[in-house]
Amino acid sequence: MKFGTKAIHAGIEPDPTTGAIMTPIYQTSTYVQRSPGDHKGYEYSRTHNPTRTQLQNALAALENGKHGLCFSSGMAAVDAIIKMLKPGDEVISTNDLYGGSYRIFTKIFQNYGIKFHFTDMGDLTKVESLVNENTRMIWVETPTNPLLNIIDIKGCAEIAKKHKLLVVADNTFATPYLQTPLDLGADIVMHSLTKYMGGHSDVVMGAIVVKDDDLHQQLAFIQNSCGATPGPQDCFLVLRGLKTLHLRMERHCQNGRQVAEFLKGHVKVEKVFWPGFEEHKNHKVAQEQMRDFGGMVSFVLKGDKVEDAISVLEKLKIFTLAESLGGVESLCGHPASMTHASIPAEERMKAGLSESLIRLSVGVEDIEDLLSDLERALR
Ligand SMILES: *Cc1c(COP(=O)(O)O)cnc(C)c1O
To answer: Which PANTHER family does this UniProt record tie to the protein (predicted)?
Structure first.
């Protein structure tokens, strides 16, 4: 099946008891057993819930994986993956990582004896130079947030194979519409479903998809033991959102391209970060591993003054000032004071996160309205 057909049908079965075409919301915590241990595969909703099962199957299909696991947030999915490690283990990741991932790595798991290295993963020699006998995992996020750097997933997988490491890919920004990391050699795909996958800014949820049965067992054990599972109502909302993922992504990409080109030609703009530009330093890799370039665009103002960025953000009307991304509505944000405030200023500068950097999540509205909103705010 092609992607759009899969988004609508894959992993979804009509409800076995009624034939309902839409997956029912199984709002139940437990399931009746006829005799001890004699049940229909469902015992307790932390462990399994039919609405969640359908969503997990749909996600596995979209990522070309075998098993999906859903969590109560993207961060709970990150948490579950790192819980596979032990004190002394090391992880290599990118230096412009999602702020929340950076925070859980350095402020939580570092206290449990797990060590994290952050480097410019656009350069694979830097990644390989950090590998030692304690390394267990390479954590890839691509495109990165908010600088839209591109990391070569296949290249990371080759290094990982050589040293017997796991590759995790946070696929939140790209979604399986744009790239399927498991096909490029990653072992684990992680998502914040809160963003493009849910797509309607109405739910917080995370997911993991794997191909390997052993990895699935380990992660399912953590999912059930630690208990950060989503409720059935939220699973229903994401199932509903997934059905239009391909349509939304197509428009996000079209609008993203036009916004990036508009900003690039604007006198008040110093630099635009968008992987579709030929001069983007990893454009070639983006072209190879992605179908298109997505709806995220970041830019820096001439003079790099924080006041100027704040003024632009206050003037924007259709681009709403809010954290998060990937919904149908366009959002704007100021990483230095919002999403990335938990990264120390010094680390932020090292990673190239300028004070006037503005991040746009370009929605699916009419492009004329989005461009005139930007035009007016930059005047
Ligand atoms: C939002 C986000 C997360 C965290 O997900 P939540 O659902 O907010 O917990 C992780 N990675 C990336 C890239 C994100 O954008």
So the answer is: CYSTATHIONINE GAMMA-LYASE, TRANS-SULFURATION ENZYME FAMILY MEMBER
Q: Are 103 and 97 in contact (CB under 8 A)?
A: no
Domains of the chain: 3-240 (3.40.640.10), 245-378 (3.90.1150.10)
Task: Tell me which of 141, 142, 195, 296 to substitute to probe ligand 1's pocket, judged by most ligand atoms within 8 Å of the beta carbon.
Answer: 195
DSSP code of residue 39: S
Average pLDDT, the chain: 96
125 C-alpha vs ligand 1 centroid, how far in Å? 27
Question: In the prediction, which pLDDT does 346 show?
Answer: 83
Q: What positions carry a catalytic annotation?
A: 46, 98, 170, 195
Half-sphere exposure of residue 322: CA atoms within 13 angstroms, side-chain side: 15
Atom of ligand 1 nearest to the CA of 193: 7
Q: Which of 274, 278, 318 is nearest to 296 (CA)?
A: 274
Cα–Cα distance, 277 to 293 (Å, whole number): 9
CB of 96 closer than 6 A to ligand 1?
no
Q: What are 133-168's pLDDT values in tens digits?
A: 999 999 999 999 889 999 999 999 999 999 999 999
Predicted local distance difference test score (pLDDT) of residue 230: 98
Expressed in angstroms and rounded, the spacing between residue 192 Cα and the centre of ligand 1 is 5
162 Cβ contact list (under 8 Å, min separation 6): none
How many Å apart are CA 103 and CA 219, to the nearest integer? 21
Residue bearing the CA closest to ligand 1, atom 6: 74
